[in-house]
Design goal:
This protein is an alpha+beta fold. It is 41% helix and 22% strand. It has three domains: 3-162, Beta-Lactamase (2-Layer Sandwich), CATH 3.30.450.40; 176-265, PAS domain (Beta-Lactamase, 2-Layer Sandwich); 278-332, Winged helix-like DNA-binding domain superfamily/Winged helix DNA-binding domain (Arc Repressor Mutant, subunit A). It has helices at residues 3-6, 11-22, 54-65, 72-76, 98-105, 140-162, 191-198, 217-226, 265-276, 280-290, 295-302, 306-320, 325-332, and strands at residues 30-36, 43-49, 83-86, 109-119, 122-132, 176-180, 186-189, 230-236, 239-247, 256-262. Strands 2-1-5-4-3 form a five-stranded antiparallel beta sheet, sandwiched between helices. α3 runs parallel beside α8 (217-226).
Amino acid sequence: MPEVAARADTVAELGGELSRQLSRVVPHDGYLLSGFDPVTGARCFLACENGYDTRARRRMDREDALGRTRGPVAGLLHGPCPAVVLGAGSPQEHPDARRLHDLMGAGVYGSEICVALTRRGVLRGVLVLLRERGARPFSPTETARAAELAPSLALAVGRYVTGRPLRPRPVHLPPGIVIVNSDDEIAGVTSAGREALGGVPPGVYPAGERDPFSFIWHLTYTARRTAAPAVTCAPTPLGWFSLRAEPLEGAMAGDVVVTLQPATAAELLPAIAQWYGISRRERAVVEQALQGRAAKQIARRLDLSPHTVNDHFKAVYRKTGVSSREELIACLA
């Protein structure tokens, strides 16, 4: 299944391909694919097709940010099976799924399988498969099949993110601003914010139901819950973006400002290191290079030989698809 990522140019195409492959062994009526920043744990991309409507998705994002509807996913990291059934009517559904029943009740879906996609013990994404109300719920056999495929699905998500060389930061794009008020309405958006959101395709939805702001709700609710900034680095067709949701204080308490801009090196390097498998030593060498130090200076500071420093650079070039130190710096700084 990792080869699916090579054929996908967008998250929507990735989700569609994974859904088609999975439908052969686990038939389903719709799906949601979420990616998560491996450093902050915040959502960094989203795609869905024939899934919950806008209102239901936003309610689920709010509940998820509170650790409710799909909170059991966090426990999957430490359990024997990376898949659980959530939803009405399934004898093997997770006991924490009660809240999901109410959310599903207003729509057409009655059962879902939630699959945790992990790599090296870190949650990289969640794939939700949906079955309409009235159809038989997902069976234990289907859940087991989904669990068996979870490593391949996680690898495909990772290949989608890392399968293309790093691109230079789009420094020509100004920061975009979106303001979400306390009633969860878009109170304002800059033209740069709308343009940036246009480069973060949220996926495919039913006709006429496109929500250009669907990508930011989970981050917004997370910031509101923690009363602290919530940050994610998102891979987009325009390059890597940083999304930062921060609650306002004073007279505008309850409002959240979401800033979208090309990710800085300080924001991007930790995420890149996780996604691309850059080691701790390799990351330290890159950090020194970002400060403008030559290879010999880096060797002295890290107590390494110049030959080892060059080997670390070559390893980073190979992993990220760049060809030189200058190109690497242009992608990060």
